[in-house]
Amino acid sequence: MKDLEFSKGAIGIGESIVRHVKFGASEIGLDLSEVGFEQPIEGRIEFFRLTEDLFFKGELWTSVRMVCRRCIDPFVSDLKTTFSLRFSPTVHSAENDDLTNRSIDGEVVDLTEDAQQSIVLEVPCWPLCQHDCQGLCSSCGTNLNDQNCFCQTDLTEASPLGGLQNMLQSANSQEK
């Protein structure tokens, strides 16, 4: 992806370049089955060079459509991520190497995979439409965010928690 490729020779030592980017999720290979991208991914990437090392600071944002894990209603949420990377012509030892420090291989640095990973890491693994989502009634399936449910919550022996309820009732009656 051209917007995420930076040429080492395009910048002198001590200089910086800011690039505004805009691209579709499919352009960087993002195909997440549970997430729909509502708009293009936009961002700002600063590229600067000190000696032979190249530094990148980026910020990407978009809106995504997901399904709430509690009430199964679709919702749209803003997604924003940041990243910082350092590319060096020297190979680092395994002790000092981490995900943000890399060696330069060639004249062009491609941040496509880094952008992809950064976005994927921001997608919640348990998306909720709101932090206090009430979910669905386990008996009738009513969305408890929209209306109250009038199902009886009587726990009987047939219920997985019915035995526990009976144990608690008998323990309380013995204490009295």
List keywords for this structure.
176 residues, six-stranded mixed beta sheet, alpha+beta
Walk me through the structure.
A hairpin with a 6-residue loop joins strand 5 (about 55-65) and strand 6. The radius of gyration is 26 Å and the shape is elongated. The protein is α+β, with helices and mostly antiparallel strands and about 180 residues long. It is about 15% helix and about 35% strand. The protein has helices spanning about 110-120, 160-175, and strands at about 5, 15-25, 35, 40-50, 55-65, 75-90, 100-105, 110. The strands form two sheets. Strands 2, 3, 4, 5, 6 and 7 form a six-stranded mixed sheet that branches. A two-stranded antiparallel ribbon has the order 1-8. It folds into two domains: about 1-120, no CATH class; about 135-175, no CATH class. The model has no long low-confidence stretch (mean pLDDT about 85).
**Structural class by sheet pairing and helices:** alpha+beta
What kind of sheet is the major sheet?
6 strands, mixed
Our Rg estimate from Cα atoms comes to: 26 Å
Series of H and E elements: EEEEEEEEHH
Nearest-integer average pLDDT? 85
Please describe the topology of this protein:
Layout: E1 5-7, E2 16-23, E3 36-37, E4 41-50, E5 53-67, E6 74-88, E7 101-103, E8 108-110, H1 112-122, H2 162-175
Parallel strand pairs: 6-7
Antiparallel strand pairs: 1-8, 2-4, 3-5, 4-5, 5-6
Entry summary:
This protein has helices at about 110-120, 160-175; strands at about 5, 15-25, 35, 40-50, 55-65, 75-90, 100-105, 110. With about 180 residues, the protein is an alpha+beta fold.
